[in-house]
Design brief:
Blueprint (H helix, E strand, L loop, with lengths): L2 E3 L5 E3 L3 H41 L21 H8 L6 H32 L5 H10 L9 H11 L6 H4 L8 H12 L4 H8 L4 H12 L1 H17 L2 H6 L8 H6 L10 H30 L7
Antiparallel strand pairs: 1-2
Length: about 300
Amino acid sequence: MSATILTDGQSAPAADPGAELRRRAKRRRAGKTLLLHIGILALAAVMLYPGVWMLLSSFRPTNEIVGQTGLIPDNTTLDNFRTAFEGIGGVSFWTFFTNSMILAVGSAVGVCLSCSVSAYAFARIDFPGRNLFFSLMIGTLLLPFHVVIIPQFIMFNEIGWTDSYMPLLIGKFLAAEAFFVFLMVQFMRNLPRELDESARIDGAGHVRIFTAIMLPLMRPVLATASIFAFIWSWNDFLAPLIYLRTPDKYPLPLMLRQYTDQTSVSDYGGQMAAAVLALAPVLIFFILFQRYIVEGVATQGLKG
């Protein structure tokens, strides 16, 4: 390595070319990271803009909502929220809210109870035709809901369950949600079978193994399933529209539709305020339990 001669006769080491290359590589990485963050922020702004516009539009007067795409309202009012809390069609907002809560909580409970039992049978019990039945169940995921609407409606109408919550909840308690069964089966397959064998040696049966061993280990996937079931049921519009006819039984999605009428005046301000109120519980529920989604989908039964 060459050296530089100083005026006092001493020599100083020359600059290290490797250090200069490392500095350049570091600057390139910093530039790429900056561009990546800018791109992510721009994408997030595009995705969040409709929600932010809806939130701010709930404070606009109704006559200023249609035709205006600006984000900041010129005038603000709380009349839209007062209108939303009063309800519509003679039914209060809290009636719609209670109906949605009954359907969402009932769906979450039904999915966790029925799908966990079915998943235990597929994952832990050897019975004739298990693989065939499991394949048929997975095949139902390929069947669109719209294909079975008419036969299901005819069946429930013959039974006399239309205009009730039974058609909306009965499938949740009969393990008809193949996605959640599949999710729990995959989770259970990652749990060591030595746990079952040890419990069986101690005289435990399937009921004891399921309740005392499997359920405590399944808390992440049960939380994930309940979150998805709650949100999907809360946001469901088509099924309640098909089976419910009495406004007193409508959930919030059907309430939002009533604010828009093509034959008369539409209350867009009340609709925006009601949409914000309907969205708030889902956001709170998701924020509180979002960590369980990652744990459940990762299908990690044991830690250590």
